Each structure stands twice: as structure tokens, then as C-alpha cells.
Amino acid sequence: MKLNKSFSPWDSNRTSFVCNMTLENKPVCPMCSCSGLTTFFTMPDVPVFCNKLWPEAASARECVRGDIELAFCDQCGFITNLCFDEHLMDYNEHYDNSLHHSSVFQEYIENAASDLIKRYNLHDKNIIEIGSGQGDFIRLLCRQGDNRGIGFDPAFVARNGSDNPNGHVRFIRDFYSTRYSHIPADLFCCRFVLEHLNNPSHLLATIRASCDGRSETALYVQVPNSSFILTEVALWDIIYEHCSYFTPRSLYYMIRCAGFRVTELVEEYADQYLSAHAVFTNGKTKLKQGSNNMHYQPLKTRLDKFQSRADRIRRQWRAFLSASVEIGLNVVLWGAGSKGVTFLNQVDPERAVSCVVDVNPKKQGHYIPGTGQAIISPDDLVPEKPDIVIVANPVYMTEIKNKLQSLALNPELISL
């Protein structure tokens, strides 16, 4: 394994680990089946979905809620939400978490596609993307490399009424499962899917079974980087949709257990993303689950202080918003994704933030789950004349600053 510091839930056979208990009624790790789980962070009564589109403020405020109780496995380093209830999850056409309308993200994802094409010589090849969303990434891979692609996603909405926009890419509105194992693939892409699964190793096992007899098949996985979350106390990245959390070590362990050889682990996008490249191994390097002997003392030290540090951050932001409203400042949030939704629900129950800006046209005209602020376009911000704009993700700070300048707006910018 090469560790480079520059470094949608799509399993139809999901099983809830909430009920996965030992005889002593202790929760069992869904990754390695060990019972040494330690709870380190709780966040009750949060919206179940951060990225569902709500057409009315009232319905947004009345969204379904759930509890988060994160527990760490001493054996394999996996982190799970013990309170996760899969029966609350319903991914459909009203779900949208696309970032492709940002020029910063678009540049990043185009470079990622180019790297995959070069790395695996993806020209005139077959690609399967599990959890393909609206198909932006697989379309990019097929366009750049003249490849053929199939995207699996139950929330896919056809463009121009067609699930097969051209002869190179088609989409199946379903979870990927063994019923599709006959479809050949030179590359499996699984981007920001495993964190939505309460038994993510099952999906990797399904992919692994589909690779039998295809020795050249490669696997590309991306998940949120939990090392970043724990180090930076990025509590806005902790959401109910994500029931599984991975550090580089636990992701490496899971992929190896599934029978793949990990060739590289990469921390990307200001260390917020964790990417893994792996290849089919014919089972020669498959690990036995529970055989991970890695030490996690530095990680456990961060876990011990995470709750208290997160509580302090929440208090500071609540005080800031309260003081801003008291002196008559108009505070706006930029970013209606997971970070923004979690931030508002954790620190702004009184709606001190007047509205939320997002560049995704599908989100505009809708409302924030839990708190009910309106989501508007950047152009609609002009009459709002904001005094302060809170940027949900500092990765987009320069892009947002440039947009505000083009609108002749000069608010104070603060990032989470």
C-alpha cells in the first residue's frame, strides 16, 4: 500500500447492525464482529436527510429526525452510528447532493477522471459506477476515454426523459447487487457510497464476486476522511445519512478483507476525501476478518476529547450568531449541503441566519431540513445585502469571494 499524504447507499441486501448484539447485549462491530465498541460522540434529534429537497419551509422543519451515537472499534478502527435505523432511509428522485455546479469541484473531478483513465488505461473499456447520482462522473469517464459505462442509482432522474442519453452510458435505477454480476467491468467506481451503508463490506464482497475470472478489474473507492473529521473536529461532517466512518487504516483493512489488493490510499480535496485504488487478487491477499493488529492510540486520544471540543465549538457559534442578530447584522450561509444543514440544526434553532445560498439549481427554491431557511441562488443574494457570509466549506472560499465581488457585494466572509 502506498499512503500519499498529498494524498448513496447502493446495497440491496443491507442488514441493520443496530440489532447486531452479543449474548451480553453489547453492540458488535459490523466490520470485524468484535465487541470492543466505545461510544465517543452523541448528537440527538438530527434530520435524517441533509440532501433531500423540501419544497415548503413547514415540511422542511417537520422532517424525519434520528439520533447519532458514534462508536469506535478498538480492533479495526471502524466508526459506526449505533442509533442508525435503515428503515428511515428512502433515496429517491427528491435526493440531490451534486457538487458539479462548482467550478472548483468540477476542476477537481475532471482531474480525478483523467488520473483514472491514465492509471488504468481506460480507453474503449467497460465501467460500472455504483451510486452514480445523476451520472456526471461516469459520463465524464466515458467521454474522456471513449468508454462504455453503466451507472446504478435508485435516485437517478433521466435527462430529456431517457435513461440512456447516448450509446456509451446508460443508467439503472436500482441498487447494485449480485443480479447484475454478469455485467463485465474493467473498473468499478464507488464514490461516496460506503459511508451510507451499515454493512459496507457486503457491497465490496458483491463487487469482488463479480470480478471472478476478470483478473484485470480495478476498484476505485472514495469516502469522507474521518481522520480529517476527528483532527479538525469537523462535527458538521457528521450526518445521519452516514452510518459508517473510515480512517485510512480502517478503509484499507476493509478492502483487503474483501479480497482486493490496495495499491494506493490518497487524502484529497484539502484532506476531506479519502480515495483508495485497488485491484482484483484471486483471493491471494485476502485477510481474515479480525486479523487487523494496527494500533490506534493516537486516534483514541482524539476521540476522548472530541465531544467536549465539539460542544465548545457549538457554544461559540451560538454566541456569535446571537450577538450578530442583537446588533442588527444580516447573516447568510453559503452552502446548502451536509455541512450547512448540520451547522444550522446544531447552532441556529432561532433562525439567526436569514437564508442559504447554493449554486446547485435543483436546491434553489427549496428549504433547509430542520430549520426551514430558504435556499436561494447567488444572484438572489443581491437584494439581501448580507453583512456576514458564513462559508460552509473553506475549499470554496476563493470561488465564493470572486462571485460576491462580481455581484458588487462585500460582506465579511467567515468559514466553518
Please, could you describe this protein's structure?
This protein is 27% helix and 22% strand. It has 416 residues and is an alpha/beta fold. The chain has an eight-stranded mixed sheet, sandwiched between helices. The chain has a five-stranded parallel sheet with strand order 15-14-13-16-17. Helix 2 crosses helix 3.
Fill in the keyword field for this structure.
8-stranded mixed sheet, alpha/beta, 2 domains, 416 residues, Rossmann fold, 27% helix, disordered N terminus, 5-stranded parallel sheet
Summarize the structure.
The chain has two domains: 1-326, Vaccinia Virus protein VP39 (Rossmann fold), CATH 3.40.50; 327-415, 3-Layer(aba) Sandwich (Rossmann fold), CATH 3.40.50.720.
Q: What secondary-structure arrangement, pairings included, does this model have?
A:
Layout lengths: L1 E3 L32 E11 L9 H5 L3 E9 L5 E3 L21 H17 L6 E5 L5 H10 L2 E5 L16 E4 L14 E5 L8 H12 L6 E7 L1 H7 L11 E2 L2 H10 L2 E9 L4 E8 L16 H30 L4 E4 L3 H10 L5 E5 L17 E2 L11 E4 L5 H10 L5 E4 L1
Helix pairs in contact: 2-3
Spell out the helices and strands N to C. EEHEEHEHEEEHEHEHEEHEHEEEHE
Total number of distinct structural domains: 2
Biggest β-sheet, characterized?
8 strands, mixed
- The CATH class assignment of the largest domain is Alpha Beta
